[in-house]
Amino acid sequence: MITAAMHRARSILTAARTEIAQIADQDDAIPWTLLDVDRVITDLTNQIEAEETHPEWPRSLISQ
């Protein structure tokens, strides 16, 4: 269940990243924002993969 929510969150963030990228040339701060969003998406992807690969691991271990 939690993994399904994380998949949904990643999907929303990926769509938001696309929207942010479309306005990237309008503001110098946008590239930094894109890097931050990319970092969050990567972290979320890593956590999803860890939970799907090792469901027996405690969540506190995966989140570190």
- Average the pLDDT over all residues and give the rounded result: 84
Summarize the main sheet.
none
Calculate the terminal CA-CA distance, rounded to whole Å.
20 Å
Estimated structural class: mainly alpha
Give, in order, the helices and strands: HHH
Strands, total number: 0
Helix percent reads: over 70%
Number of helices, where a helix is a run of at least 4 consecutive DSSP H or I residues: 3
Q: Write down the Rg.
A: 14 Å
Summarize the structure.
This protein is mainly α.
Overview of the structural elements:
The chain has 64 residues and is mainly α. The protein is 77% helix and 0% strand. It has three helices and no strands. Helix 1 (2-22) runs antiparallel to helix 2 (30-53). The longest helix has 24 residues, at 30-53. The model has no long low-confidence stretch (mean pLDDT 84).
Give the SSE layout.
Layout: H1 2-22, H2 30-53, H3 59-62
Helix pairs in contact: 1-2
Characteristic key phrases:
77% helix, 64 residues, 3 helices, mainly alpha
